[in-house]
Amino acid sequence: MSDSAKAVFLSYASQDAEAAQKICEALRAAGIEVWFDQSELRGGDAWDQSIRKQIKTCALFIPVISHATHDRREGYFRLEWKLAVDRSHLMDAEMAFLLPVVIDDTHDGDERVPERFREVQWSRLPDGQTSPAFIERVRRLLSSEVSTATEAPVSAVSAAAPGLRRPVRASRRSKPVLLAAVAIVVLAALAYLLANKFWILKHATPETAARAGPTPTAFAPPPHSIAVLPFVNMSGDKEQEYFSDGLTEEILNSLARVNELQVAARTSSFSFQGEHPDIATVAHKLNVGAILEGSVRRSGNTVRITAQLINAVTGFHLWSETYDRDLGDVLKLQTDIANAVAGALKVSLLGQLAAKIELGGTHNPAALDAYLRGRKAYIARHDVKDVQTAIAAYTKAIGLDPNYGLAFANRSLALNVYAGETSGPEVRESFDKAQADALKAIALAPDLAEGHLALAAYFDSGLLDFIRANEEYERALALEPGNSRIMGNYGAFAVLMGRTEAGITAARRALALDPLNRANAGSLGAVLLIARQYDKALAAYLDALALDPEWPALYASRGLAYYLLGDFERARASCESKPDYFVSQQCLAVTYDKLGRHSDAEAELAKLKAALGDAAAYQYAEIYAQFGNRAKALEWLETALRLRDPGLVNLKTDPLMDPLRQEPRFQAVMRELKFPT
């Protein structure tokens, strides 16, 4: 560009490239210098320096506004907008620098558009069709008579752009006005600090701090709380979405390892995927004070990540950056982003953060790719085939990097799930493999929380060694106290072991970290049910059903809560809502029996036995205990012990087993299981 001081900077979202191209061509045809970046891979240090220089020196900044710019697309144009807004606040000519153009029906009061852009007159150029009147307006603004150009008669532009706002007169920015602008920034920062202080005062106890629901009634974000929205896949290939999702999750996990940060967990953050909500909506739903969003563009083994951090209380951008990296440097990238976010939020970093974040990771691009594919399959699983797909992907990652601790830990967790969903010799074989993988993960990275979580899961359900399971859960929690998955699993286990208050507190904490996670809401219900707080369990199940009205397990669990309250008609109605689910059949068996429908009760029990065989030995013991048939119940309980049925983890606190507790055979099983005291 020959003279950027006389040039126009055209800023646009990638979806609006065609319309922006039309505007650019029309201006250039009129002899007007235009900065119009059309590079395929935008971003990087050189790009960033060039953009900053052009926005700092250009005569006119034209943001192209449309519905596309409301969406959470790549961060490049947002960074350009921020730089332009910052410059406009410091310019002597108050508004002459900005000329917003709207190419669709976005209205000029839309709050998703920066306030600074809404303060000036917009030009409407549908689909980028550029009128002579608009070109003349640009000429006037580029002329030396800037102060009079902004006072052009409305008729000069309204003929081509109906519905424009009234022109804003330019004025010299005096020192008092500049001081006022500084004061506004300071007050906004104070508002953020006061909001954080308000939260601290309002949530003074651990119990109230831990409690959160899926629909918070007030916006009171904890200090240093943040949500990481799924980074947008800008690779032009939907098949690459697993990579952008996986990288987002890795960044989220990295931030969760920073002790002073409270990070909304993956399920809640990813619930907004594809919706393109505004920042305020996300912040209020997740009750967080900051939002990290961005985009990922991958080309072979090169990746470009753009990230920006927004203060959800003030609406201000706190930080933004673009990174160009090889896939082998993704571990270092996670550390860089976590450091930058922590710095922007004024969090003190204790210890070796990089070592903590990069623990158990890989520098092998192909291994990382396979691992991310496995995570995608595991998280989105609907049946046992999806679990097998995840296991295969983790196996590939391990083959490519035999020292990939995270791949071993996650394969172990997947194998534990697979063991619970299969039958025959594969059950024990899968549990044995899960144990080997967990031990390998810990051997590779002794402080890897996921490794200890995997070993806890094996001891819990695969070996029924509850003392060692408890040790591993507590070790995992100590390593990553902000990990909602660990917190939720620990909470459920603690209540089953009889540590009721600790378990409930942990379950509520997990829900606070991941408030839109149906599993966390349902887990809280289960924890309260085991704690015999049936009314509260019902309320938790209702919250979970609001998040996922189609989840069969919730109807069955709610039915059991009604059953234990003695409301058998409501128990029947709830469990009949999803009659093909095996827990619903268990619920209906005991409920029909209490309603005097004994043949129907036996029919439901027969369905279970036909479908599951001895694999549901523990559930049969529960049913017979509720039928009052203690002999049959004890017979099936002993069968469950012989088969090492994973359901036995419930035995110590299971209310359905209460009729058997005084039986010597029941007490013998309890002693054999060696529950912690």
Describe the structure.
- Strand 10 and strand 11 (317-326) form a beta hairpin.
- This protein starts with 7 loop residues before the first strand and ends with a helix.
- It has 677 residues and is of the alpha/beta class.
- The longest helix has 28 residues, at 175-202.
- It is built from 31 helices and 11 strands.
- Strands 6, 7, 8, 9, 10 and 11 form a 6-stranded mixed sheet that branches. A 5-stranded parallel sheet has the order 2-1-3-4-5, sandwiched between helices.
- Helix 17 (405-420) packs parallel to helix 19 and helix 18 runs antiparallel to helix 19 (449-463).
- Mean pLDDT is 81; it is low at 144-217.
Key structural traits:
677 residues; alpha/beta; six-stranded mixed beta sheet; five-stranded parallel beta sheet; 8% strand; elongated
What's a quick, concise take on this entry?
The chain has 31 helices and 11 strands. It is α/β, with parallel strands linked by helices. The longest helix is centred in the N-terminal third of the chain and has 28 residues.
